[in-house]
Write a structure and sequence with these properties.
This protein is of the alpha+beta class and about 475 residues long. It has 15 helices and 17 strands.
Length: about 475
């Protein structure tokens, strides 16, 4: 006769899948461990087949390319070398051309904030006397519209820039890349918030006529500036260097202060007031630095690292390393939002701007865990830490340059891997501002936009097809 089966007297459970079962065990006073597992790519057979190849026979080549792309994102040294009119330094910028955020779009598809910014830029350039004449010029097709990213330029929110727009010039000597971004317009009555008011146009002219010559002279005297050294210090001081750039801005102004004080330009005091009031001054400079790194990483063939995330208020576009093709999906609305008094979701335009390039180099949402300002948007530092942790799950590695003292000193997530994004269904979260959708009143809040999954899926399938055909 066989021995009686002895049932265990102590039960502990490891549950894979639905957390309901682990919760039931815990409710009965027994230990349980929940394993967060989900069907890869949501069970999409086409995507799963592509992942099987990219994680299977193609994985060695992809991983090697990813390691190189990661190295470039992590070790490049973007240096601010000058402030110049865009028409003098951006090779592809024509005489009657405006550069806008995100992928290419036609005028009829432009959202209201972007359309208003276009009108303001046309008047500031001197191509029209007022915004009505500017709109007629745009409708007649007499002004060419082009994506800023395709000219090595990045612009924030609804910014539209023409040949006379002052730009930061940032060079990355290791990669031989150069990138540009417009000087920040500041807060209030400004075109980058989707306004075409006289005040917004006046601010654009002020940047060209006063800030450009003053800062150009200041930089000539100060010498080159290591942009990301300031960003790294600022992350340790609570900036995510996206929705909050206050510490980085202060560090930059402190660096430039001796030369600014020595300036003999007659408008230097006006410019000093503008600098001191512009808490987001560093934003566009950081964007240009990021673009110089993603341009270098983008030269690596066969990598699954995402090198472009940009939105024009209508579509969200991604591009991969080694591929200039845009992969598109509708631009998302901004969630986890903190609105200005009297404003809410009904007032909000879809997500817009090129600033998501910051999330690709370890800033923005990647640095959210160390930023109380982001915590305010999403419901506390624990929720902000989740943004960083989620991004880490879909990245190739961690930054050695941006570290989070309040997050165990860990480097921020770096190198978004399209394979992991599609496999896990986790897309990057972008900390960003929110513009009014229709009345031209400007910014109505800030929050977190979740990148749409379909454009990453399309990019994955294109990568699989390209590498499998070799």
């Amino acid at each position: 006769m066989s021995a009686a089966i002895q049932l265990p007297t102590e039960v502990a459970v490891v549950n894979v899948g639905l957390p309901l079962f682990a919760a039931a065990v815990t409710a009965q006073g027994r230990p349980s461990v929940q394993v967060d597992w989900r069907v890869p790519a949501g069970g999409d057979p086409v995507a799963v087949a592509a992942l099987r190849r990219l994680y299977g026979p193609l994985t060695a080549a992809v991983d090697a390319a990813n390691a190189e792309a990661l190295r470039r994102l992590d070790t490049g040294v973007p240096v601010l070398s000058a402030v110049r009119p865009a028409g003098e330094v951006v090779p592809t910028l024509g005489d009657r051309m405006l550069l806008h955020a995100g992928p290419r779009l036609d005028l009829p598809n432009a959202c209201d904030p972007l359309r208003r910014s276009m009108r303001a830029a046309v008047v500031a350039e001197g191509w029209a006397d007022d915004v009505d004449a500017a709109d007629r010029l745009l409708c007649a097709g007499e002004v060419t519209l082009s994506p800023a990213n395709e000219s090595g330029v990045v612009v924030p929110m609804a910014t539209v820039m023409g040949p006379t727009t002052p730009v930061w010039v940032v060079t990355n000597d290791a990669g031989g890349t150069r990138a540009y971004a417009p000087l920040g317009q500041g807060s209030g009555d400004v075109a980058w918030f989707g306004k075409d008011s006289p005040g917004a146009i006046e601010r654009l002219v002020f940047l060209r006529e006063a800030v450009l010559p003053v800062l150009s002279g200041v930089l000539a005297d100060s010498g080159p500036v290591d942009v990301l050294s300031f960003a790294a210090q600022a992350v340790a001081m609570g900036d995510d260097v996206h929705v909050r750039t206050q510490a980085a801005t202060n560090l930059l102004i402190r660096h430039l202060l001796p030369q600014l004080m020595a300036s003999e330009h007659p408008r230097r005091v006006e410019v000093a007031r503008y600098l001191s009031a512009n808490h987001l001054l560093f934003l566009t400079l950081a964007m240009a630095a990021a673009r110089s790194l993603t341009a270098w990483a983008g030269q690596v063939e066969g990598s699954s690292v995402v090198t472009t995330m940009a939105r024009n208020g209508t579509e969200f576009g991604t591009r991969l390393s080694g591929d200039d093709t845009w992969f598109l999906a509708p631009s998302p609305m901004v969630g986890n939002a903190l609105y200005h008094p009297g404003r809410g979701p009904a007032d909000s335009a879809p997500d817009i701007g090129d600033s998501a390039v910051l999330e690709l180099i370890g800033l923005g949402g990647a640095a959210a865990a160390g930023s109380p300002a982001v915590g305010q948007l999403v419901g506390g530092l624990a929720a902000a830490a989740e943004l960083t942790a989620d991004l880490e799950r879909v990245c190739v590695g961690r930054s050695s340059r941006f570290t989070l003292p309040t997050f165990g000193g860990r480097g921020t997530p770096l190198g978004v891997d399209v394979r992991k994004v599609v496999e896990l269904g986790i897309t990057p979260k972008v900390t960003t501002g929110i513009l009014h959708s229709r009345d031209g009143s400007g910014q109505v809040g800030a929050g977190v936009a979740e990148a749409p999954l379909p454009c990453f899926r399309a990019a994955l399938l294109a990568l699989d097809a390209r590498l499998s055909a070799r």
